[in-house]
Design goal:
The complex is a heterodimer of chains A (321) and B (278).
Chain A: H1 2-44, H2 46-69, H3 71-76, E1 80-81, E2 86-87, H4 90-121, H5 124-139, H6 142-161, H7 169-194, H8 197-205, H9 210-239, H10 242-247, H11 268-275, H12 284-314
Antiparallel strand pairs in A: 1-2
Helix pairs in contact in A: 2-12, 4-7, 4-9, 5-7, 6-7, 7-9, 8-9, 9-12, 11-12
Chain B: H1 3-40, H2 43-47, H3 56-87, H4 92-106, H5 109-123, H6 130-154, H7 158-166, H8 171-199, H9 228-238, H10 245-275
Helix pairs in contact in B: 1-10, 3-6, 3-8, 4-6, 5-6, 6-8, 7-8, 8-10, 9-10
The chains are: A mainly alpha (321), B mainly alpha (278).
């Protein structure tokens, strides 16, 4: 009698224990799941936090410059000579845009056609063999591009145009175009590859030649992606610092006439890199350099967001970038 | 032969020109560095102190910088990728974080330099130091690592995860024991590409962690560091006209670091894709 009771009690106890431990483990599971998800979420948010901190801290350091110089005088002032207390950023941004404009035109001419050739005309194996080299081209550090431009490209530009010094906006645009070609080639070729094969076959079946098919069907379908790749390349080009610093000539003046690509220029990025080291902290010059930085940040932010919106708007379920 | 036919034949040749230009430039850059660098580089130069005209500390400093950066950036990047792929594949959180990463990827490296200087060096008081460099570059390479890791995680077949879940594994256990090991080669590739980006970076390290000369290697993480890129920069920008022997030597070392890292990343990716037969 007593024995039976004991075993019953034992059973009950065991059951309770089982229930309890399964309850505990379930609780632990829930808690653990939440803990991990929360931890991952917090880490994932660090990119948002940093973007926010960049805005706040660069803007804060730039603010005194905007206050003292005035936003309009800073943006449109035609003279940048910190030694005389003149902080007009127009020549710097004009220099930046000049180089970027030239390099994007060159890079698009080379990159888009190279992408078409890789995807449409080369056998797949050959294209797959060439692609890693183009990716490697994107990985070459900008200081090495600058070195190459300084010693190899600049003397040739000087010879060709009969200039005393080969460091000009054109030199920088040429070298920069090779730095952004890989961006255009790799994204464009991906997008062109993504155009469904039926589209091409339908066009060919109607009697179009291969080139007509590419021009009339493939490129229009791939256009959003190609445009996005060009915008991203533009963003990369405007932020490029070291290579353009070394080969653009570093003269903070507007070229005359303004379209003269054989004049030296000083892009905004290069200004920050060269002048930051020799400037006492918290001086007006120091703040003005941060002001250049926040302008660059805003420009690239707008371009990247625009590229994003453009791709999302024109995406019709065919092309994904 | 009519006009259409001629055009049809001519198009491939015309289109080949840009590809030939790209290949030509690729070869030109490599030949330029390699032919000039081969004569300038020597084991002696690589092991001699910067103070005596060598590049020893610059090589050590470069590896210290990229090693530390990747140790900080990989966990953050991987966590972000896991969260985006496994926990929040859709919805607002995913959209906002992806957007932030895209914008972070577009920030010019010189602006990262300004930010690192203003925030880590001055505001947090880390000074011009290895630590400031690590933290600044971490957020510069974060988008690269996240994107690469996301791709690697997305390539893990759903059936693998379902099998683990069916055996009673929790979501986290599944990620830890099935998803991560399967995706490991892809994850490694993304970190390696991030390292290559750090090795070649110049603009962001100018005012955050590098000095031209200092005695020996950094003793603590609060010491500044000598880097190949910065040595090259100073040599090329502030003393033009001098012989470029030392510069060529540093350029070839830098190029080799970048090429080797890229090749390793590429080979891992290719082998991984070949092995994948599910």
């Amino acid at each position: 009698m007593l024995k039976r009771d004991e075993s019953k009690f034992q059973k009950f106890l065991n059951g309770l224990k089982d229930n309890f431990s399964s309850f505990i483990s379930k609780m632990r599971q829930i808690r653990e799941k939440e803990k991990e998800e929360i931890a991952l979420f917090i880490l994932a948010c660090s990119s948002i936090l940093i973007l926010f901190l960049i805005t706040v801290f660069v803007f804060q350091a730039a603010l005194p410059a905007f206050k003292e110089i005035g936003v309009l005088d800073f943006l449109f002032g035609k003279s940048w000579s910190p030694g005389y207390g003149r902080y007009g950023a127009a020549p710097l941004f004009f220099g930046s845009f000049m180089i970027v404009f030239g390099s994007v035109i060159l890079a698009v001419a080379i990159g888009v056609f190279a992408a078409i050739f890789l995807v449409e005309y080369l056998p797949r194996g050959t294209a797959d063999f060439i692609k890693p080299f183009i990716e490697l081209l994107a990985g070459i550090p900008s200081i090495i591009w600058g070195f190459f431009g300084l010693v190899f490209v600049a003397p040739r530009v000087a010879d060709f145009f009969d200039l005393p010094v080969g460091r000009t906006a054109l030199t920088a645009a040429i070298v920069l175009s090779f730095m952004i070609v890989p961006t255009i080639v790799s994204i464009s070729s991906e997008v062109i590859e993504a155009v469904p094969q039926q589209y091409r076959r339908a066009s060919m079946a109607l009697g179009a030649t291969k080139w007509q098919t590419i021009r009339g069907v493939v490129l229009p379908t791939a256009k959003p992606g190609i445009v996005a790749s060009i915008m991203l390349a533009f963003g990369r080009a405007i932020g490029e610092t070291i290579a353009v610093l070394m080969i653009a000539g570093s003269v903070p003046l507007l070229p005359s006439p303004f379209y003269d690509y054989l004049d030296p220029v000083l892009p905004a990025t290069a200004t920050i890199a060269t002048e930051m080291g020799e400037t006492p902290a918290y001086s007006l010059h120091w703040h003005a350099l941060f002001a250049l930085g926040i302008m660059l940040f805003i420009i690239t932010f707008v371009v990247n967001t625009a590229a994003d919106i453009y791709v999302r708007r024109t995406k019709r379920g065919v092309i994904m970038v | 032969m009519n006009v259409k036919n001629i055009r049809q034949k001519a198009v491939p040749f015309l289109l080949a020109i840009p590809v030939v230009i790209v290949i030509f430039v690729f070869i030109a850059v490599f030949l330029f560095i390699v032919t000039n660098g081969a004569g300038a580089i020597s084991w002696e130069l690589m092991t001699t102190s910067v103070l005596e005209g060598g590049i020893y500390e610059a090589i050590v400093g470069t590896f210290l910088l990229l090693g530390g950066t990747i140790l900080i950036a990989t966990p953050i990047g991987l966590a972000t990728a896991i969260y985006l792929v496994e926990y929040a594949p859709k919805g607002r959180a995913n959209r906002i974080i992806t957007q932030a990463l895209n914008n972070l990827a577009g920030v010019p490296s010189i602006v990262f330099g300004l930010f690192g200087y203003a925030f880590f060096a001055i505001f947090l008081g880390f000074g011009v130091s290895l630590l400031t460099g690590w933290l600044t570059l971490t957020f510069m390479v974060l988008p690269i690592i996240v994107r690469g890791s996301q791709e690697a995680l997305l390539m893990v077949p759903a059936s693998f995860k379902e099998a683990a879940l069916a055996l009673g594994a929790t979501k986290w256990e599944t990620i830890r024991t099935v998803v991560l090991p399967t995706a490991a080669p892809g994850l490694a590739t993304s970190s390696i590409l991030g390292m290559s980006r750090v090795a070649g970076e110049t603009a962001a390290i100018l005012f955050t962690c590098s000095v031209f000369l200092t005695r020996g290697n950094p003793h603590t993480i609060f010491d500044p560091v000598i880097l190949l890129t910065y040595q090259l920069f100073v040599e090329l920008v502030t003393s033009p006209g001098a012989t470029y022997d030392r510069a060529y030597a540093m350029a070839i070392v830098l190029l080799m670091i970048v090429v080797v890292l890229n090749m390793v990343g590429y080979i891992i990716r290719v082998l991984y894709r070949k092995r994948m037969k599910w």
